[in-house]
Design a protein that fits this description.
The chain is an alpha/beta fold. The chain is built from nine helices and 16 strands.
Amino acid sequence: MKFQAVVGMGFGDEGKGKAVSSLCLDSDNPLVIRFCGGQQAGHHVVLNDKLDHVFSNFGSGTLQGAETYWSEYCTVDPVGIINELNILLAKNIKSILRINKKCPVTTPYEKQYNQAHDKIHNHGSCGVGVGQTYQREQDHYSLLFSDLYFPSILKTKLELLSKYYNFELDCTDFLIACDKLVSSYRIIPTDGLSGLLSYYDRLIFEGSQGLLLDQTYGFFPHVTRANTGIKNIIDMGFTPNVFYVTRAYQTRHGNGHMTNEHIKHDVKKNPYEQNPSNGFQGKFRIAYLDLDLLRYALSRETHPLLPVSKTLVITCLDLMQSYKLTISGKLIEYENENQFVEKIKTSLDISVCFLSKSPFPELYLKN
């Protein structure tokens, strides 16, 4: 069995969904595993220039029929799952979502608190309650996916959450979604991966956000409450071949550190861009690539069990009208795409590079 992982190198929006989708094309029966973050992902996949979807609660291989496993490191949003499931079914896309029973559940309380908190502190949150769900669990007000199968327990815990947050909310829609979730044969609770491995020929770990948003080595406080690199995967007992994804330029939603914005860029507008201006995250920002940031991100990807191999994936190359990037703050322009790509490869010490044009031709990644 092959183990592969797709990890963003920047501040998100690198093209992780596209890479996962392409890896699934090279497998007969893959399982896509979400190993960090939660429902704040927005991974846009286009298949055969016709079928498209933005994945938040299902893996980015769903269009190819791949099943999804939601690991215990991820938060669960029942309302979001049911909404997305209905959208997929309306598109005649049928798949299975397996959810670890230990996943923390996001309620309307975390969403409301998250949004109110961000209006004050301007952290650039997605506003969907992921970070606050992790915080609530640390404060011992636990609500796990397994609890949804006990209605009386769920009701009691929601009452306790009202006291914890010191405000009340109408949770009717949330409870309806929970009821639909536990009764759906497409949503399957699991105790872990060990009993599932024999059913699949490949595990593809799909990252959420990017290395520069990691809770440990990102630029606090504008980070995500997750380990966005390989740590969770290795802690699960797997050592995958890793595909590190970056656009040919930097992107970021909302507030937080990003270099080179003082330099006027000529990157073309991507007609397939998702959420270019999100209400809680704020403006979608673009700047030329900074190799120092990418080198820093990879330098923090250390573990006693190193990946079998590292592969660089560069997306959106055709949006570059001039091939510019910065090294140690100095702007350098290259004559053509080959020189531009070669500099990135050698600077990051990654020997293999898969390239992708935009909007969404498949990568056909091989490993």
